[in-house]
Design a protein that fits this description.
The chain is mostly beta strands and 357 residues long. The protein has two domains: 149 residues, Sandwich (Immunoglobulin-like), CATH 2.60.40.420; 147 residues, Cupredoxins -  blue copper proteins (Immunoglobulin-like, Sandwich), CATH 2.60.40. Helix content is 12%, strand content 32%. The strands form six sheets. The chain has a six-stranded mixed β-sheet. Strands 1, 2, 4, 6 and 11 form a five-stranded mixed β-sheet that branches. β12 and β13 form a beta hairpin. The longest helix is centred in the middle third of the chain and has 17 residues. It is globular, with a radius of gyration of 22 Å.
Length: 357
């Protein structure tokens, strides 16, 4: 979901012998190394490698991530929502623009990141009692991959998913002891082939054609581009540009403004809790945008320094208040070249609108 995602690939799934003849199988959540040469910038893989696995009862599966994924089992429950109202009934407060004027959302309900969605829970056995999750597997400052392991003590077929990326699923088929399952070499070959096929889809996504006055804010699902297409769009003053989210696995928004100002502001207002007791607040711009209801209009001088942010969009069923919008519309009224980024994914996901008189 978030952070500036390093693009990578996976090459294998291995089997390691464990106690009493049990095995530990390796599954990769997303890419693990750099993509093949020529892969479009911003490509990422929201998939498990391999996408299906056969093991024996009592075996373990180790899930490893270099980006921002979970391995989760619903166990007949519903996936907890990613954000929730502040249980303390707090409101956004003290958030002002560069001129010192308060943003319109001060006083409106504050949302927090739902730790039941992003955090570990339910133990380490699948099936457990209800929802079981590794929690977010995301590298720390050292950049090293992060792993978590589940044990599968019972026979059956179990569907796992990434709580962060819709559509990212895999099946683990657990067989009785002695049943035939693919060996390590076969599993490795499958994972390698699936990874190569996933990367191969990225150039096709990058070649997508957009309608007039339209920017695709991300595109693709299991293979996704964290990119704006086209990267540069030229329009006449007075034009309204549609920023349409074409990625069913990734939410995005659009943010304009000076780089240092935007970085400092987001650091202040977006507080993702990477550990217990840490501050927790969803950036109000993701929820409400920077402008009051009525539409986005941009002239390069908004809020004194050209700052404007839309709320998050997605490509999933449901619209406000039961979901996110699928697009944002911004009217550009003054000539100039205006650089923008996705505030969720950072400055690597960027584009430019060139407005002519």
């Amino acid at each position: 979901m978030r952070r500036f995602i390093a693009v990578a690939t996976t090459s294998a799934a291995l089997v390691v012998a464990g106690p009493a003849g049990a095995a530990t199988w390796q599954v990769f959540a997303g890419e693990q190394a750099r993509p093949p040469a020529g892969t479009p910038k911003g490509a990422t893989l929201n998939a498990f490698f391999p996408s299906a696995l056969q093991i024996h009862a009592g075996d373990k599966v180790k899930f490893t991530s270099t980006t921002f994924h979970t391995a989760s089992y619903l166990g007949g429950t519903r996936l907890p929502p990613p954000v929730a109202p502040d249980p303390a009934k707090g409101t956004y407060a003290g958030i002002n623009d560069s001129t010192g004027a308060p943003f319109f959302f001060n006083g409106l309900a504050k949302l927090i990141y739902n730790t039941a969605h992003f955090g570990p829970g339910g133990g380490t056995a699948v099936p457990g009692k209800g929802f079981v999750s590794t929690g977010v597997l995301s590298p720390g400052p050292n950049g090293r991959p992060v792993s978590a392991t589940f044990t599968f003590p019972k026979t059956g077929t179990f569907k796992l998913l990434c709580a962060v990326h819709p559509g990212m699923t895999m099946n683990v088929a657990v067989r009785a002891a002695g049943a035939s399952v693919p060996d390590a070499a076969a599993v490795k070959a499958t994972a390698t082939a699936q990874t190569a096929a996933a990367w191969a889809k990225a150039p096709v996504l990058a070649a997508a054609k957009q309608p007039a006055r339209t920017v695709y804010a991300g595109i693709g699902g299991k293979t996704a581009l964290l990119a704006f297409l086209p990267k540069k769009l030229t329009v006449k003053a007075g034009t309204t540009v549609n920023f349409i989210n074409k990625s069913p696995s990734e939410p995005h928004n659009v943010g304009f403004g000076p780089k240092a100002y935007v970085e400092a502001l987001m650091k202040k207002v977006d507080r993702f809790p990477f550990g217990p007791g840490q501050p927790n607040q969803v950036a109000p711009f993701f929820v409400y945008g920077s402008e009051p209801p009525g539409g986005y209009v941009y002239d390069g001088r908004n809020h004194g320094n050209g700052f404007l942010a839309t709320q998050l969009t997605d490509n999933q069923p449901g619209v406000p208040p039961r979901g996110l919008p699928g697009a944002s519309r911004i009217k550009f009224t003054k000539a100039g070249r205006f650089h923008y980024i996705c505030l969720l994914h950072g400055p690597d996901m960027a584009g430019d609108i060139v407005v002519t008189p």
